[in-house]
Amino acid sequence: MKFNITQFIIVLAAVAFTVACGGKEESGEKEAAHHEHEEGSEIVELSAEQFEALDMKVDTLPLKNLSSIVQANGQLEVPPQNEATVTAIIGANVSSIKVIEGDEVKKGQVLAYLTHPNLTRLQGDYLEAWNNLQFLEQDYQRQKRLYEEEVGSGKAFQQTQADYRSTQGMVKSLESQLRQFGMNPVRIKEGNFYDQVPVISPIAGSIVSVEVKTGQFVQPEKVLFEIVNIDHIHADLMIFEKDVHKVKEGQRVRFTVETLPGKELYAEIYSVGKKFEQDPKAVHVHAEIENKSGNLIPGMYIKGQVLTDSAETYALPESAIIREGDQFLAFLAERETEGESGHWMFTPIEVVTGVSNNGWIAVKFLQEIPDGALFAMNNAYYLISEMKKGETGDDD
Hints:
By secondary structure, the protein is an alpha+beta fold. It has helices at about 1-40, 50-55, 115-150, 155-180, 185-190, 380-390; strands at about 45, 60, 65-75, 85, 90-95, 105, 110-115, 195-200, 205-210, 215-220, 225-230, 235-240, 250-255, 265-270, 275-280, 280-290, 300-315, 320-325, 325-335, 345-355, 360-365, 375. The chain folds into three domains: about 40-65 and about 310-390, conserved putative lor/sdh protein from methanococcus maripaludis s2 fold (Beta Barrel), CATH 2.40.420; about 70-80 and about 230-310, Efflux pump adaptor protein, beta barrel domain (Elongation Factor Tu (Ef-tu), domain 3, Beta Barrel); about 80-230, CATH 2.40.50.100.
């Protein structure tokens, strides 16, 4: 009996040892399989059908001429000479208005008509002064001839000369006033008075605002119309103090406006300010727009980038790079040729990004890249998503 118990203990120990060894071996197999899965999960495989459905693009790494950029925001402006405020020179009533907001007008075009008894009186004063001048001129010439022949009185000549020159000055002053009102003095000399006087546009452009109504009495200097000419609309950008030394005339600016979503506009800097604004501390930079659009209006907010130093560098499209934590990843591409259809394998590789321009980003690599290596040129977001599925074991 004692012998049997001893045998049983020995057999039990042997069984326990065998089970323990088997468990360790199975655990080791599972751990090895897990590591193999982790290593394999960093490669994303796509069938030929998936590759085509995703419209995947692969290519060798291209060299691109990319520029460094300076961020700059601002608004669209026009030069002072391309804006006009039309005011009333004299108190008068608005008899008619010939334009509305948005109308295109030419320089010298009639915007409205004014009428007032004072305007009629002005024309009468001019005609009277001009007729008087004709009489005085004849008298002046007669007195001058008599004085030169020592027949006439010197005092009479001097008085006639003073009256003539005084009236001559008055006529010129009244003519100037008439022309300011858009009235032709020659017509008035012939006795053809104006019943109403035109309000003339001083520039060509668009009517921005109409500030009067028909029949309204307007005081002198009352604003009647606002006109702007956008032919020379330009970008007015603010460059912060830390970036001023990077900006100079001749550099290009890339910018966008909200009214043209998805469209990039370009301008060339023609003037860099020499005075700092205090809030914020920045200088004005003016740039002439290259591809102008009719939808550009002064005062529009713009978001831009000044393209400064340029250099040739390796680059990838923005859609070929994905940020994952603190890293930026691109994907090496390799086609598996075994089998009839073959499939594509994409391996993530860390890149250091640089300047971006026109949808391309400069890249550098932390490891050596084989000559002729292919890269995924798009769908980096999809590839990283598939890679994460592999890491979690989600095959859906």
